[in-house]
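Hey,
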Amino acid sequence: MSLTDEGHYGPKQLNMLKTIWGEGFLSPGGTGEIDQILKGLDLKGKKVLDIGCGTGGAVFHMIEKYGANEAIGIDPEPLVIETANDLAIKKGISNKVKFICTKPGEHNFEDKSFQVVFSKEAFLHIIDKKKLLQEINDILVDDGILSVGDWMRNDDNEPSAQMKDYIAAEGLDMFMCSLEKYESLLKETGFKVLSLNDRNKWYLEKVKTEISDIKGPLYDEVIKLIGKEEADGALEIWEKLLGVVEKGEHRPGNFQAIKISN
């Protein structure tokens, strides 16, 4: 079952996720989880790149709360980018943000053109994470910051049958690795690790709440948006997600790293 009626994120999918996660967000936690990923960082006056920006929630938050001077968001989904640009106009900050529709690796930025690179729940879709981190290192200024939240796993062994079943149900490419693997890759690609945080405990409670909301107060609204069959299908996916988070194999986390000066 998939709600992906146009690419990975079509109108039905976007409307449902907006209802559950809030306007501008295609992943859980909203601004509170963005604050966790950015904890202790100073973005004031800086130029930021958001990889996998979705509908712009994190970009807007970094401009409005953190005082970033300029932010560029990239994402491969056309409707997602169109929605982000519409929201930027609505918020009156389109002069400070730019959203680009591009597939991973297709858009070239100049070396040392960003002071901060941010991403939330997007790296899992990219299989060659070492190459990704090397490219990010190139576009960061010396002492530039990489701040990332991602869906991860407890280890880097073959996923369990239960995990494979969940991934198949999602219908998305998911190349999750462990927090320890990220630590190793960061060191290999010219970064000094500043922090590593496992968020499984937080996410377990979040998933339980989301399921309760979809079954309860949001159920009629979700049915209105996507129909009963797909609403029930979405619940099935959430239940599979809960199973792999409960067993500890699905372990969201975040990390911060600084580019080592050449």
